[in-house]
Design brief:
By secondary structure, this protein is mainly beta. Helix content is 10%, strand content 44%. The strands form 2 sheets. It has a 4-stranded mixed beta sheet with strand order 1-8-2-5, with no helix packed on it. β3 and β4 form a beta hairpin. The radius of gyration is 19 Å and the shape is globular. The N terminus is likely disordered.
């Protein structure tokens, strides 16, 4: 019977966000889409790649700047795509573009022989959609 009593409160807690619709994110964010093992890399390096999008939209942000502190700086292409090989370790990564809120990812780990794919979403600076 103790198990049933404990289960009910946990079940009710899980429902607190249920039914909330139209929640629209307003801050820049990222997700790790996948992590693959790569065979051909320099010893002690990993690959970071991804695409930069407008938050809550499918539109890409071309030519965004990616700054890997103590690492490398690069710019996304016209399709919002970027790819870079960096030494393994922990980094702070900044992703910026004019008219959008900056995204700073702290203590991001690059692992040897791994390829990390990010989906980056930058919010409009005023929190409004651009038409």
């Amino acid at each position: 019977m103790k198990n049933i009593i404990l289960f009910i409160p946990l079940f009710l807690i899980g429902l607190t966000g249920f039914g909330q619709e139209n929640d629209v994110a307003t801050e820049s964010a990222f997700t790790v889409e996948k992590e693959n093992k790569v065979k051909i890399l320099m010893p002690g390096t990993g690959t970071l790649k991804g695409t930069v999008y407008v938050l809550n939209e499918k539109n890409v942000i071309p030519l965004a700047f990616i700054d890997i502190k103590n690492g490398k700086q690069l710019q996304a292409n016209k399709d919002g795509y970027f790819e870079v090989e960096v030494d393994t370790g922990n980094y702070e990564i900044s992703i910026t573009s004019a008219g959008y809120k900056d995204l700073i990812i702290k203590d991001f780990r690059i692992k040897w022989g791994k390829e990390l794919t990010l989906k980056v979403s930058l919010a409009n600076e005023k929190g409004l959609r651009k038409n």
